[in-house]
Amino acid sequence: MLTKLQSIVEMAQKRGPKRFAVAGAHGLSILKAIQTAQDLDIMTPVLIGNKKEIIRFAREIELDIKHLPIYDIIDNQKIARKAAELVHKGEADAVMKGNILTPILLKAILNKKYDLRSGQLLSHVGIMEIPAYHKLILITDSGMVIRPTLEQKIGILQNAIQVLRRLGVDPIKIAILSATEKINPAFPETLDADQLVRMTEEGKFGNVIVEGPMALDIAFSRESADIKKYPSKVAGDPDVLLIPDVSCGNILAKGLVYLAGARICGVIVGAKIPVSLISRAEHAQAWVSSIALTSVLA
């Protein structure tokens, strides 16, 4: 059972540094994260962005970049394409989103020219360390698929399961969240939850436990499940929260960070390579943990 994000950093250290194409490396917080990741020996960066800005910020934090490859590119679309190209050519193992818009970067990743598609749905995985919870928990999708269909939720679940299996989590318990535990057409996510549970029973997702729909209180509290007479193997102990849409996931994750002192890391999975991605407003720890998670998955 993983209880700390530091465990993921240690996994990355054991595997050795991976080569990251840093798309938009011209940012102070980005270079600080790179500096820490290099010190931890979990990353070998290839910097792509405004070289003058990269040099200026590197001097500010006393980061030695003389030995690092730097591609001096200012245009965001060209930055994104260079990152995808480096991976395509085998010169990078993963991509890190820096000072560049996510849609621009992902458009390049999905460009057939670079052959980085895997046939799977791309989705965002956030892994959180919450002081009031006894283990790490995965929240998905809070940053990629805006309003997932049932078919997309299947892909999101498959991605989440693959990530946790790579991290050595077994068994995997999944809670499909809603505002109610009743199947109700007024809440379309409850219909999807019912179908996903049936698919699990038929072996669609392998040896995992999937329950839902369930409200957040039941997911986190066995006592709430007992009071509401909700029979459950997941209540109080989920590894994954599947949320109805990006807005719900974004609000939940940021609420936990800013109001409950949670720590987070994030990655986009589903392509042939993982993409380290976290909110630009997150602390340096979140950037470094995201690099570590991406490194483990690369």
Tags for this model:
2 domains, alpha/beta, Isopropylmalate Dehydrogenase, Rossmann fold, elongated, 298 residues
How does this structure look, described?
With 298 residues, the protein is α/β, with parallel strands linked by helices. The protein has two domains: 6-117 and 272-297, Rossmann fold; 123-260, 3-Layer(aba) Sandwich (Isopropylmalate Dehydrogenase). It is 42% helix and 19% strand. It is built from eleven helices and eleven strands. It has helices at residues 6-15, 28-39, 51-60, 76-88, 102-109, 150-166, 188-201, 216-220, 222-227, 246-260, 284-297; strands spanning 18-23, 43-49, 70-72, 94-97, 123-129, 137-140, 172-177, 208-214, 240-242, 263-269, 275-276. An eleven-stranded mixed β-sheet has the order 3-2-1-4-11-10-5-6-9-7-8, sandwiched between helices. Helix 7 links the parallel strand 7 and strand 8 (208-214). Helix 4 (76-88) packs parallel to helix 5. The longest helix has 17 residues, at 150-166. It is elongated and about 65 Å long.
Task: Provide a quick synopsis of the model.
The chain contains 11 helices and 11 strands.
Q: Remind me, CATH topology of the largest domain?
A: Rossmann fold
Shape: elongated
How many domains, in number, for the residues?
2
Helix coverage percent of residues?
A: 40-55%
Widest beta sheet: strand line-up: 3-2-1-4-11-10-5-6-9-7-8
Report strand %: 15-25%
Structural class: alpha/beta
What's the pLDDT, averaged over the residues? 94
Total beta strand runs: 11
Radius of gyration based on Cα positions: 20 Å
CATH architecture identity of the largest domain: 3-Layer(aba) Sandwich
Structure annotation, total helices: 11
Determine and state the CATH class of the largest domain. Answer: Alpha Beta
Note poorly predicted spans: none
Biggest sheet layout? 11 strands, mixed
Distance between the termini: 21 Å
> What string gives the helices and strands in order?
HEHEHEHEHEEHEHEHHEHEEH
